[in-house]
Specification:
With 331 residues, this protein is of the alpha/beta class. It is 33% helix and 19% strand. The protein folds into two domains: 10-56, no CATH class; 62-320, Alpha-Beta Barrel (TIM Barrel), CATH 3.20.20.70. Bound molecules: S-adenosyl-L-homocysteine (SAH).
Length: 331
């Protein structure tokens, strides 16, 4: 497949245009956010500025290496950063017309959740805000997008500043804050800053996956560092301060965390006014078996009996290893 460059670095663009009126870089951003694919299209910029940009600011922070399409319409893109680090982003197309982009916040991930493929690859580095935005922009050039989830590679709260800077620009691409979701394992330093500093109505999702510390630590080692009670108390603070529910993600691992007893414990652990539970069928990464449909249904019923209204996540892009937890930059 032909390699081509996508996207932009507005900081570099502002530097290159330092001698020009300040609104120039804003004009560039407006074009880019709308899905422009070259400086040449930016007809309200003087020809001279366009030439300067073409020479000095490559229209790129990412190189598209490979793109795969699933039978369900999902598209997975593998990119390299300019310094050669791999990352993936996924476009999900839903029947009701929703177009949701799942972006990566890091190349690889330093955490080692046992069920997630990204944790098995080498951690490279945090992505810049522009590298994050470029993932969404890549798909925006194909078709309008309306949701973004920070659920690709990496732990967003470990790259707080760049993740939040990127999220704050998403409305320019047509993605409102209410349709932007940041997902975390419960990395407390970042979570605390998110609650205290981000006033925009960006949604919060917590990867919980177990109703008690011992089990959670055995599948998510990060739990030893930031145990359940502390993380849940912080989520409660988010609810009290921001007035928005927290989504709980719970991956269904056969024989590990999926019994009715686990469901009952989960129901006791969580306040149903604060948390909305989303059950995730396990996507094969080689280590576990997924729970059967019946087991998932029984788990769901038990939560229902405890007063919750759990949902089961639609699995997308499994055939191209683009589903939750399958991103490992192997093409
Ligand atoms: N590090 C952040 C952002 C990644 S979100 C976080 O963990 O929240 C990716 C979601 O997919 C997380 O909820 C993760 O736990 C889940 N996941 C990981 N591996 C999975 C798998 N094999 N099957 C289904 N979901 C998985």
């Amino acid at each position: 497949m032909q390699r081509y460059r996508v996207a932009m670095d507005l900081d570099l663009i502002s530097e290159v245009l330092a001698d020009e009126p300040a609104y120039r870089s804003k004009q560039v951003w407006e074009w880019v956010a709308r899905g422009a694919t070259s400086y040449g299209e930016m007809t309200n910029l003087p020809a001279q500025s366009r030439t300067l940009l073409e020479e000095r600011a490559p229209f790129s922070t990412l190189t598209l290496v490979h793109e795969a399409k699933s039978v369900d319409g999902t598209v997975k893109a593998l990119f390299n950063t300019h310094d050669g680090h791999p990352l993936e982003a996924v476009l999900m197309r839903f029947r009701d017309g929703r177009r949701s982009v799942c972006v990566s916040s890091q190349s690889g991930c330093p955490l080692t959740c046992t069920f997630c493929a990204t944790g098995q690859m080498q951690f490279r580095r945090n992505l810049t805000a522009w590298e994050i935005l470029d993932q969404a922009l890549h798909f925006k050039r194909i078709e309008p997008i309306d949701h973004v989830v920070f659920m690709g590679m990496g732990e967003p709260m470990l790259n707080f500043d760049h993740v939040v800077a990127a999220a704050r620009r998403l409305p320019d691409l047509g993605v409102t804050h209410r349709r932007t979701t940041l997902s975390t394992v419960g990395w407390l330093p970042g979570l605390t800053r998110f609650i205290d500093e981000v006033e925009e109505p960006i949604r919060l999702a917590l990867s919980l996956h177990a109703p008690a510390d011992a089990l959670r630590s055995s599948i998510m080692p990060v739990n030893d560092r930031y145990p359940l009670d502390d993380v849940l108390a912080e989520c409660q603070r988010y609810f009290e301060l921001r007035g928005r529910k927290v989504f709980v993600e719970y991956v269904m691992l056969g024989g590990v965390n999926d019994s009715v007893t686990h469901a009952k414990k989960l129901g006791e652990l969580l306040d149903r006014n604060i948390f909305k539970v989303n059950l995730i069928p396990y996507n094969p990464t080689g280590f576990y078996d997924g729970s059967s449909r019946t087991t998932i249904a029984e788990f769901k019923d038990a939560l229902h009996a405890a007063g919750f209204s759990p949902t089961v996540r639609l699995t997308r892009g499994r055939d191209i290893a683009a589903a939750c937890g399958q991103l490992a930059a192997t093409g």
